[in-house]
Design a protein that fits this description.
about 250 residues, alpha/beta, Glutaconate Coenzyme A-transferase, 8-stranded mixed beta sheet, 3-stranded mixed beta sheet, 7 helices, about 25% strand, globular
């Protein structure tokens, strides 16, 4: 018999999906204000990747270095950061992300915090997984208003890695490096291919490996709601209380 029907929040689903992408023995970095990737990485550590070197900014347990994010940046610059997570107010069809402004740069509709180190990390981490808590045409646009970090690199520019996937509450998009575009890799339970495409502002072909995302298992949710939740309380107490079920 298969897994029983289980209820979960969108944030829990995203955390589980992210956890499945983490490989054992990797150097994994999670930036500031990123509770969903942090949840997923801690979950992976408890399940299939017990030997990862996990660094989470704002965590004394997982980031015991002084001096803010410098150690994480140095690791990436040496080419030793295997996996990192980024987001953006806009993500476009060419893999570019925008963390700076909406509208014209000189007279923007909205000015955003910007991107301390994100452009370098997008180049130097071996794999970058993007994440966004909404999947709408407002986020997934044909062309970003401002390129904080580019998805495509000129042939004469060194790049250790770059974009690999985007995780949202509806789907997983996979980066086709050869074609320089996103492909629809998986659709989550409760969503459909049509719904995902209707909420994406650019054409989205299916990947050859397309599948429906396997729902969270009882083991994944139980671990997330117990051991992971307790650790999250020390990093993101509000998120742990409101987004991870008790």
């Amino acid at each position: 018999m298969g897994e029983p029907f289980l209820e979960y929040t969108p944030e829990e689903l995203m955390a589980v999906v992210i956890s499945r992408e983490v490989r054992d023995y990797e150097n994994v970095g999670v930036g500031a204000v990123s509770p969903i990737p942090a949840s997923g990485c801690i979950l992976a550590e408890h399940l299939q990747a017990p030997h990862i070197n996990l660094m989470i900014l704002d965590s004394k347990e997982y980031y015991p270095f002084p001096g803010g994010s410098s150690e994480l940046h140095f690791l990436a610059q040496r080419g030793d950061l295997d996996l990192f997570f980024l987001s953006g107010i806009q993500i476009d069809s060419r893999g570019n992300i925008n963390l700076h402004v909406l509208g014209d740069y000189q007279s923007p509709q909205m000015r955003l915090p910007g991107a301390y180190g994100s452009a370098m990390l997008y180049y130097m981490a071996h794999r970058v997984i993007l994440f966004r808590t909404e999947h709408t045409k407002r986020t997934f646009v044909e062309k970003v208003d401002f390129i904080t970090a580019p998805g495509i690199t000129p042939a004469n520019v060194h790049r250790e890695g770059g974009p690999t996937k985007v995780v949202t509450p509806k789907a997983i998009l996979a980066w086709d490096r050869q074609g320089g575009s996103w492909l629809l890799e998986a659709v989550h339970p409760g969503s459909s291919v049509e719904e995902v495409r209707e909420n994406t502002g650019f054409e989205l072909a299916k990947a050859s490996s397309f599948q429906m995302t396997p729902p969270p298992t009882e083991k994944e949710l139980t671990t997330l709601r117990t051991a992971v939740r307790e650790k999250l309380k020390r990093i993101y107490p509000d998120f742990a209380e409101k987004k991870i079920q008790n």
